[in-house]
Amino acid sequence: MRKPRKAVSRLSGAALALAVTATACSGLSQGSGDQEFSGQTLTVAGTWVGGEGKAFRKVLDGFTAKTGAKVKFESSRATGVDDFAAFIRDKIKTKKSPDVAMVPQVGVLQQFAQKGWLEPLPPRVELEAARNFALVWQNYGSYRRVFYGMYFKASHKSTVWYNPKAFEKADVQPPGDYDEMLTAGKKLAAAGYPAFSVAGKDAWPLTDWFENIYLAQAGPSNYAKLATNEIGWTDPTVVKALKTLGRLVKDQDLVAGGGTEALRTDLNESVDAVFGKDPKAAMVYEGDFVASIIAGEEKKNVDKTAKFFPFPKVDEGEPPVLSGGDAAVAMKDSKNKDLAMSFIEYLASPKAAEIWAKEGGFLSPNINLDLDAYPDETTRKIAKSLVDAGEAVQFDMSDQAPGPFGGTPGQGEWQLLQDFVRDPSNPEATARKLDAAAAKAYLDASATGTG
Length: 451
Hints:
Blueprint: H1 13-25, E1 41-46, H2 50-67, E2 70-75, H3 84-93, E3 100-103, H4 106-114, E4 118-119, H5 123-132, H6 135-140, E5 142-143, E6 146-147, E7 149-156, E8 159-162, H7 164-170, H8 178-190, H9 204-227, H10 236-249, H11 258-262, H12 267-275, E9 283-285, H13 290-295, H14 302-305, E10 307-310, E11 322-331, H15 337-347, H16 350-359, H17 377-389, E12 394-395, H18 397-400, H19 403-406, H20 412-422, H21 427-448
Parallel strand pairs: 1-2, 1-3, 11-12
Antiparallel strand pairs: 3-11, 4-11, 5-6, 7-11, 8-9, 8-10
Helix pairs in contact: 1-5, 2-16, 5-15, 7-8, 9-10, 10-21, 20-21
């Protein structure tokens, strides 16, 4: 059992005193289970479907058992809507706003706060967050220094997964830097395995590729500036990162089938290409959720099937730690604000995280969640890596951008990086197109108050 680490509090002394008082008065915080909300109903909206939806349902059942409140969960994806911001906007227009929304992108959280759709979280929730989360997670849940979102589910997007049999056959070891990774890729190709299967059809994994390279190569300061549009996409650091990515995607020894095949391959297919019955590549890059894809419905033992190594450093930089996550926010239109706040306080507890952790397919930034709650050693290692990174964690850049640039199929960064994978010969031209698309998206978002 891992000893809990001390969280860094973001609260002022006055707020902390208020939080202690509020917590002392909260039956939920003391774990009384006195059914204080019996007869009431909480509505929660999110994006999870399938296995994730079922696992979250167990978390909701835990809240019901504790408080007596019924919980109704509605998934935007189950209704055929991929744009969560649009889903919530329509709910507000029809006066059917949920009490709590599980927001999947930090940019969307900030958009909701800017529009005045969110209720600030009270001191007692801030206290629970300060006990259980590093300061970086509290800051990403804030807008203009007001705490609106409590991060419940996280992802670790700096993991490279590999087939150990392929590595053994080619006599290669996990690399220490990007150059070593490409060199190992050449040896793997010579042994019969192209280095990577790349999920270019989905497009968003390409943004993750770029962001890991950029963070590792340009450093966290430049990363933060690019993520907030403080520097443009024609900056030399961007061109350099595109060239570094281009070294990979232009080489068919390094990408199975080259860029053309990558653009026909989605994430599930890329994972299957490495860990399926007939492996076609040795490695696949993506986040911790690759483990749940490998396990599948059969719940295969990931520890025996796959291994991973951290996304390597590039040049003289540090290895990146890139993340994303889903934050619980209370909607301003909620008629059940006290119930909503108690639910978010519950989600901030290690107990709530433990319920989903045991089900698999989940990672928590909660530093007081016992790592033994995770179902396999592989996930435990990833969770420890994320928690130990502390303040070094950087959030997914595309998730921080306006949707038309950072999160929409067929346009913006998604489309332009797909074009680059198809033809990586002119990174300067790609940078100019990215800069123009970003400038328009940020300008439109500023004009309409959506970013």
